[in-house]
Design a protein that fits this description.
Order of helices and strands: EEEEEEHEHHEHEHEHEHH
Mean pLDDT: 95
Shape: globular
Strand order of the largest sheet: 4-5-7-6-8-9-10-11
Strand content: 15-25%
Number of helices: 8
């Protein structure tokens, strides 16, 4: 929720400009609560719609179709299917945020793909692993025939996972789950981790120079996952996972940004995956001079457009 709550309520936690938790259990999100409806995007012609996946839990998603797919006069080959997991520290933003809606419109149009943007339940009301389980349920719902857009237009042998920040963490963990459990007769071809939110007990790279950032992220981890036993849990630190080589895709793309405080964690994972004996192909891309999720906040910049084009090439 987001509201102007009474100033006499006692605040238990306040994390930067993200959210406040009050003593009575009320949660006030300070950003990332705006939503926009599905639409036919006037700039790209991309069509979107919202679907309820689980009425019991409220799990939902926003689906996207590129303009050529909606032209009944054309014959169509089936298109790659992207599952996108939004960022926001597991606690803010949504699949319906203008930030993600606008970016998915651009990405779907440029890459000519079908996309499912997963609206998982957020922490701290729904602590980890609920966002992971919701995302996994959404993937299996879609590849299992849950919606006719996916059935009619998507190639289930060309499935991709992608996400930024906390969503990158979800994309990674679901890729591992595919490696261990499979994917209902579908094929996970690739995973894109965009400035993924990883961590660890031992500081690496520039983390020692950013103690306030490290403290803040560890505080958020404890809030969104109260039962966490340490920051080397493989969900947080994939390099500590003895099964790191079981990643369930053929291709991995790790995207980092030069000025991003989580840059070194993305690089560390990339190097660990390459050394692990994993049989797939991994690449890494660094955006010079940029900070965390710059491509969402300034999508028309030269570096953001370059990154978008890299995504397009990866899908096609």
């Amino acid at each position: 929720m987001s509201s102007n709550l009474s100033s006499n309520k006692e605040v238990v936690h306040e994390i930067l400009d993200l959210f406040r938790i009050y003593k009575d259990g009320t949660i006030e999100r300070l950003k990332g609560y705006e939503i926009v409806p599905p639409s036919i995007d006037p700039h790209t012609g991309v069509q979107s719609k919202d679907v309820i996946i689980s009425p019991e839990t409220g799990l939902s998603a926003r689906l996207y179709l590129p303009k050529p797919a909606t032209n009944p006069s054309q014959s169509h080959d089936k298109l790659p299917l992207l599952f996108y997991f939004h960022g926001g520290g597991f606690c803010i933003e949504s699949a319906f945020s203008p930030l993600y809606h606008n970016y998915l419109n651009s990405l779907v149009s440029a890459a000519n793909i079908v996309a499912v943007s997963v609206n998982y339940r957020r922490s701290p009301e729904h602590p980890l692993p609920i966002p992971f389980d919701d995302s996994w349920a959404a993937v299996n719902w879609a590849v299992g025939g849950g919606d006719h857009w996916v059935n009619d237009f998507a190639d289930l042998n060309r499935v991709f996972f992608a996400g930024d920040s906390a969503g990158g963490n979800i994309a990674y963990n679901l890729g591992m789950r595919v490696g261990l459990e499979g994917l209902s007769g579908s094929k996970l071809e690739g995973v894109i981790l965009v400035q993924p939110w990883f961590g660890g007990e031992e500081l690496i790279g520039s983390e020692a120079e950013n103690p306030d950032f490290v403290l803040m992220t560890r505080t958020v981890w404890r809030i969104v996952w109260p039962s966490v036993t340490g920051f080397d849990d493989p969900i947080i630190n994939p390099n500590k996972d003895p099964k790191i080589a079981d990643m369930g895709c053929e291709r991995m793309l790790v995207c980092v940004a030069e000025k991003d405080p989580v840059r070194d964690r993305g690089c560390h994972y990339y190097e660990g995956l390459r050394r692990s004996g994993w049989k797939g192909t991994a690449d890494i891309v660094e955006s010079a001079g940029e900070d965390h999720v710059f491509h969402l906040f300034n999508p028309t910049s030269a570096n953001a457009i370059a990154l978008l084009n890299i995504f397009v090439s990866f899908f096609n």
